[in-house]
Every structure is written in structure tokens, then in C-alpha cells.
Design brief:
alpha+beta, Alpha-Beta Plaits, 4-stranded antiparallel beta sheet, 33% strand
Length: 96
């Protein structure tokens, strides 16, 4: 069972000052390819998994932003760490 939920809002700053949406799409693609359970929301994406794995995904996202010509990137992160196990459904099932 997953031991963490991590929500990330990535704010890339393209070198050309252009639209950030293609960069955000690229960051979400990295999450998709990681194989973790995730949900995209309007202002952030939440991932479910092992804490160290989720942090490695965030590292890849930030590195990728530099590879595709961003000046910098801000990652706003929220973490729920619960070694006994936690899922997104556990926190939201009463609302579904």
C-alpha cells in the first residue's frame, strides 16, 4: 500500500516567456509514464505511492523543465506521509 500522497503544482518559466501549458503538459506526461496512481486537478496534480518514488518523479519533472529550455521552475508541493498506508480514495470517498 502507498505510504504517501504528494500534490504538486509546477510553475515553469519558459526562456522565451511563452505559454506555460505545454510545459505543464510535459510534467504531467512524466507522472503518467511513472506508473503511479494520480489525479489531475485544475491547480495541482496529486500522486499516490511510496514517498521516495514520488520525490524522484518530482526531481525528473524539474530536470525536464530545464532540458526543454526553462529559465527556472517553482514546484509547490504538499505531502501527506503515513507509513501505515494512505490512498486518495481514503480521503475523498465520502464525497464521491
Amino acid at each position: 500500500m502507498a505510504n504517501a500522497l504528494v500534490s504538486i503544482q509546477i510553475l515553469p518559466k519558459p526562456a522565451d516567456g511563452g505559454d506555460v501549458i505545454p510545459y505543464v503538459d510535459e510534467a504531467i506526461r512524466i507522472i503518467q509514464e511513472s506508473g503511479v496512481k494520480f489525479e489531475v486537478h485544475p491547480l495541482e496534480t496529486t500522486m499516490e505511492g511510496e514517498l521516495t518514488h514520488l520525490f524522484s518523479i518530482i526531481e525528473k519533472m524539474n530536470e525536464r523543465m530545464m532540458e526543454i529550455d526553462c529559465k527556472n521552475v517553482i514546484s509547490q508541493i504538499k505531502v501527506l506521509y503515513q507509513p501505515s498506508g494512505i490512498t486518495m480514495d481514503t480521503l475523498t470517498e465520502k464525497y464521491r
